[in-house]
Amino acid sequence: MSIFDAIGIAGTGVTVNRKWMDAVSDNLANINTATRTSDPAYEAKYVVAAEAADGKGTQVAGVVTGSAEGRRVYEPTNPLADAQGYVKYPDIDMSSQMTSLMMAQRAYQANLQTITTAKEAYTSALQLGKG
């Protein structure tokens, strides 16, 4: 383990949490995207994190998508409505997405604080030899 591993490991956390926030933002942006019942609904994105291959930090192992089935809503005035008056919306829960967004934001901030603290510790260590 080198002296700068703390910064490198926290940096991997920043990257994963940024991608997690991006996925949640996409989901929230498309939560009210209506489609025809014959078309697939927007598929929510979920980031899967895993330990980094070198064991130092974390990485994005992949992105899993939700169901394209969506939920049918009766909106006969919607121009996309079928003959029965239904349209399809993504099956995304606003409260769970907001919870995920807050968790990703807190983890992102914690990793940034780790980088800042490590940088200050290294800077202080460099000042020890100076009189």
Automatic annotation (TrEMBL):
One Pfam family linked to the record: Flg_bbr_C
Keyword NAD among record annotations: no
Residue ranges occupied by any Flagellar basal-body/hook protein C-terminal domain in the UniProt entry: 83-128
Principal location class: other
Keywords linked to the UniProt accession: Bacterial flagellum, Cell projection, Cilium, Flagellum
GO biological process, one term: bacterial-type flagellum-dependent swarming motility
Stated name of the protein: Flagellar basal-body rod protein FlgC
Species the sequence originates in: Kineococcus rhizosphaerae
